[in-house]
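Recall the central idea of this unit: under ordinary conditions, the amino acid sequence of a chain determines the structure it adopts. In this exercise we apply that idea directly, starting from the sequence alone.
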Amino acid sequence: MTALLLVVSGLFGLVVGSFLNVVIARVPEGESLWPRSACPNCHARIQARDNIPLLSWILLRARCRNCGCPISWRYPAVEALTAAAFVGVAAWLGWSWALPAYFYLTAVALALTVIDWRVRRLPNSIVLPSYPILAALLALASFGQGDWFALARAGIGGVALVAFYTAVCVIAPRGMGLGDAKLSGVLGMALAWLGWGPFALGALAPFALGAAFGIATMVTRRSGRGTTIPFGPWMCAGAAIGCVLGLPAWAYYLQVVGL
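Accordingly, the structure predicted from this sequence is:
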């Protein structure tokens, strides 16, 4: 059953990754997600046979069937990364009521990571709808597991992280944007639903990751003091660390302090 879950999760991830490519390409430009995708060079609609995740890109040799224009490697990379991430989430949670919530969070985090890295922006059209959708999925998980305190904890965590990030935006407006503050509530909900350990680690890890990356780029002279670094990707990466390592880290901390 576990092997079946991993296989299904990987295939589902490929399909979701294909859709995320559309989101990544169109949402920052304010374009509709419909109709069907087209070649950016010749504008020919991409047929179903040429829209199979990963496989079509390989069979077409990374070129448009109609005009021969190269197809960016980003498309199969997003599909493969989404599939791998979904397999990882399934391996982490197993057969759980929480699986849909963290699949959704993973998809949103991957899309926002690529978009923020490309255009230095976290679109409201992705972030804001994530609040009610994730809340509903976490409510479903709480219902299935009979743990309504987890849902209350998620609400507290979301509000707390938004308040913290908003305060940082006010104190240091050049260091962080309101888009980061809006995203923080979504991540705070998902982290706190798991427990206070994941919440604490997931809240702190982005700052450590961002600082390490900033120092590394300055040392290698790939950036200067005035270079802006998107923080959204580090928020998502830090949340992933908090989700996976938060509970064992929290248990270790309580053991060390003797609680």
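Residues 163 and 181 are 8 Å apart (CA to CA).
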